[in-house]
Known about the structure:
Elements: H1 3-11, H2 21-44, H3 51-56, H4 63-73, H5 77-90, H6 97-119, H7 124-132, H8 135-167, H9 172-220, H10 224-233, H11 252-268, H12 271-278, H13 283-315, H14 332-340, H15 347-372
Amino acid sequence: MSGYEKSVTASRGESETKFSTVDYAVFSLMLVVSIGIGLYSAIKSRHKTSTQEYLLGGRKMSPLPVALSLLGGGISAISLLGNATELYLFGTQLCTCLLGIIPGCVFVHQVILPIFYNLKIVSLSQYIEKRYKSRALRMLVTGCQLLMMFFYLGICLYTPSLALSTVTNLSTTVSMGIMGSVCTFYITIGGVKAVVYTDVMQTLLMFGGVLLVVTITCVDLGGVGNVWALADQGSRIEFFNLDTSPFVRHTFWSTTVLGFYLMVSKVGIYQPAYQRFASLRTLNQAQGVCIAFVVGLCAIWSTFYFSGLVAYATYKDCDPLTLGRIEKPDQILPYLVMDKLDHLTGVPGIFVAAVYGGVLRSVNTQGNSNSGI
């Protein structure tokens, strides 16, 4: 088969490079373990049926799993595939958003957390009612939050379906159905403990899966230095674009502001994040988890960013999107795995399980926080 024929075949979803039995087994194991954690949490807490126990773990959970769970909330499948694609297409300027996260952490740590935690509320909507003495305003805010989460969950469910459809014959509809069913089951029976402990497993899986793929591919390309040099030759290395024009895609100013905004909006005043902070015994523990979150986020997002450079170094002279081998830019990382690593039994399964783990975390986090709201 000629190169052109292979590209056409791939673009029609009929590529010969598909999941093996081992890949399906690895992927299925992740789903089974997630369900198992939900069952275990439900059985262990069967005699504790209070709202505080279900939504906040009785406010006595351990900091380490909560920190990993909070970190999992910041590294969805959207951030994995989206950040890698951004660097593949446009370069590294987006990375400077990590600089903005640091002052954002200080603001959350010193200002926001002490206020919310000491109120001992379950939902941030309760703060609105307490602050403005208006139940109608609280109901309006609650409705807006639920509407926002409704649309966000749709994006969360769709994104990893692109990865799975790249490597299997499953349709996006079937893929979203599997994710929705698994998450609904273990959230419903296990509460926040099931959410937190599945988050731990899925966070470690995502980071390990992406790190494995990046390491193997980077070695094949000649190491980090060679990947960086190839990216630099392709004008993908940029960190201090000080242009003040709002019409430039990314600048140092816009990305640092973005980092600050993300920290405040997705950690400081975000219901899923607050429920994790509120599940801890003391404010000091909550503030420590906030710092641990930033350290972990910088490490994991840096890995995601570098995966985009690895993909660029691999395909700088033969872009799969231009050649018709993929239908959307966000499929570049799954395509890289199947194109270059399919000979390593189980690696594609680990990668797709990692991507799925990201969306399962997002969905179960939103589901549990919706209950709290």
